[in-house]
């Protein structure tokens, strides 16, 4: 039986968490399996038996096996995970843009939980948590030694319940203790406004089930205010990803015809797919084509896409597609670099494994993984430097991250152990400035990158960044970028 699937993408795991997977039924592939390693399986059984007989206190069989699965999957890469009943339910909630938590995207680094970015308007955002902050304790329990899944579970809870985080920040001599109240986080996927006569701002903060129809409503509202737009800024900064159909639909809104948006390459034949700007890939649940209601002028209006180190996965797919077709100018700083596909394999009615199964490639065949999208115009986040962007953790910083898969000649770099103490004076100065800076109101008059985008539209000088793009930090796997197109996906997307 060939399973239907739903494409989803995102970054990291969120303590209110951005979905990052493809949902499929678990197919039986007994004929494809290699012979089981009997010696290693005997060792596993021996260790299991020793724990049952010799450990200081009895251990429940289900708990022991669940922990074994958790450790086995988590050791693969930062995005593969075993989902127990609670995690599975929370993931399904997050796909709809709502969850209960603190509103932070996190990843594990050197045994600690590191903040990728806080979600706008969340408890973490309002409390001043910044990208690059490190969580060392949760309710006074040391994070070091916990799995990322365990840390996330501790930060989740009921609405209005309390949790206390201990935060270490570069440039601070001592960690600081931050009490927070959990809330139901509802992420508004699409926002827009006219920033100046003739110039519109359209922001996508996360790709959700309703992103495409919501975008259509917002765009139509903008054109109702000004039918002769001179330029549109598509803001994907701090967008951690979300659902793949949303990324395809947003890309298709600006591109002519049925252009290829993204392809995936993996070990299994079903992992080799091509996604086009067609309704079947972005609007399968809609009664009609949601993009049919867009004004025709959207296909030709000048577009600038804003990105930064918090732009990941789905947002990188959109930026990469519009960049490859030269449909938009990409402005800002290098993106996160999360270019891998996670597939959800259900194990039971309420448990599953989230497994990395493929890499994403832009229409021109560029691998996004561990590199990201390099802007056409590099612009810092603030007028006085890159601020938080220099402190952000990226995919290439994550331990055991998947290699890029196409840069065969890249050389490995020595891994850097990043702690608050291992930092030069320049980093400390940037950290102090970022710590004291108020959270940016995207789309406001104080939004430096937005103002530079407007300058670009008008032919005025743009203040460029002196920063160089970052390369992948580990030696890529022996994978060549495919010369031929992967097989076109078959079946309906939901």
UniProtKB/TrEMBL annotation:
Residue segments, region Disordered? 403-422, 460-494
SMART domains reported in the protein's UniProt record: PDZ (SM00228), TSPc (SM00245)
**Compositionally biased tracts (Basic and acidic residues):** 482-494
Q: Which UniProt keywords apply?
A: Hydrolase, Protease, Serine protease
Domain (PDZ): give its ranges: 88-170
> Is the Nuclease keyword given for this protein?
no
Hydrolase listed as a keyword? yes
Family matches, as NCBIfam families: prc
Task: Please state which protein family the record places this protein in.
Answer: Belongs to the peptidase S41A family.
Q: What is this protein called?
A: S41 family peptidase
Species in which this protein is naturally found: Massilia soli
Classification lineage: Bacteria, Pseudomonadati, Pseudomonadota, Betaproteobacteria, Burkholderiales
